[in-house]
């Protein structure tokens, strides 16, 4: 059974009261279950990062976390118009976006993989392009055995709105009879893709890699397990972070004082 879970951070607002004080309201939709049918809407009011009160659509009421906001929550919970407003927000922000979220969750693109060699320093480069989502695993194999030393990675870089590229570097001193393979694992692939290095191919004179050897020089950049992508829309941008989608928008559902 498919369980998908997404969280939309729909609005973030900072109302600055003084140089130090600010309040923030964030709205979050969680989609779960088959067809993403279980939708939970959470609204959180914070003051200086401290959570003051929270609305949970599953419980259907506000919870206060300070003496004052407990009182406010009590008031709002007895206000039928507040319940209507929350229901409207839930529909507008969560329910009406379900299809969009579903598409977002379904979108995958298989990586295009290229192997190259550099002479100075002697490095093999395994590059994966145009893949989505960001999570990917590149592994070097020498005669079928995983190589863990003298390996470094670039971070997965955004290649425009939806696609990523990544490069893995292996310090390489050719030895007769060895077989070097770059193994690529990605959500879009049903099984790991094996790309065998063919030393008879001419070395690339110049490889178009932005990060290039920085990865090797700086040390080991571990590929993060999370993934983030941005999609520009007219007034909002989407950040997906391990199944979390944030859409900061200009307008708040409602920002009452705390
Ligand atoms: C909110 O609702 C839950 C169950 O629906 C209840 O247990 C809880 O006491 C309520 N909280 C407030 C502050 O009314
Ligand atoms: C909202 O309330 C439901 C029912 O009490 C609970 O299962 C769920 O974890 C709550 N969600 C959050 C984000 O606290
Ligand atoms: C909150 O209320 C409790 C009990 O009424 C009281 O003991 C406590 O001092 C109050 N806290 C603040 C910060 O006012
Ligand atoms: C996304 O996946 C869901 C369930 O797996 C399916 O119902 C829906 O049609 C898919 N959407 C697209 C655009 O493929």
Automatic annotation (TrEMBL):
It is found in: Membrane. Residues 111-186 form the Ig-like domain. One of its GO terms (cellular component) is MHC class II protein complex. The keyword Transmembrane applies. The keyword Glycoprotein applies. It comes from the Eukaryota. This is Rano class II histocompatibility antigen, A beta chain-like. It comes from Sparus aurata (Gilthead sea bream).
């Amino acid at each position: 059974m498919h369980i998908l879970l997404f969280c939309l951070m729909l609005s973030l607002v900072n109302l600055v009261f003084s140089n130090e004080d600010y309040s923030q309201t964030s709205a979050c939709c969680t989609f779960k279950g088959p067809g993403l049918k279980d939708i939970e809407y959470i609204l959180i009011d914070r003051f200086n990062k401290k959570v003051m009160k929270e609305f949970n659509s599953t419980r259907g009421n506000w919870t206060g976390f300070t003496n004052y906001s407990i009182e406010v929550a009590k008031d709002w919970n007895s206000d039928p118009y507040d319940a209507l407003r929350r229901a409207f927000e839930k529909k507008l922000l969560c329910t009406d976006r379900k299809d969009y979220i579903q598409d977002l969750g379904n979108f995958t693109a298989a990586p295009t993989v290229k192997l190259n060699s550099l002479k100075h320093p002697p490095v093999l480069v395994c590059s994966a392009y145009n893949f989505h989502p960001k999570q990917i695993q590149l592994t070097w194999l020498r005669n079928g055995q995983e190589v863990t030393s003298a390996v470094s990675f670039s971070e997965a870089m955004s290649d425009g709105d939806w696609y990523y590229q990544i490069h893995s570097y292996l310090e390489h001193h050719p030895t007769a009879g060895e077989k070097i393979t770059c193994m690529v694992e990605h959500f879009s692939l049903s099984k790991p893709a094996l790309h065998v290095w063919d030393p008879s191919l001419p070395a690339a004179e110049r490889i178009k890699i932005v990060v290039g050897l920085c990865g090797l020089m700086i040390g080991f950049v571990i590929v993060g397990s999370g993934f983030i992508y941005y999609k520009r829309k007219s007034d909002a941008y989407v950040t997906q972070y391990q199944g979390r989608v944030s859409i900061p928008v200009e307008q708040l559902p409602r920002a009452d004082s705390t």
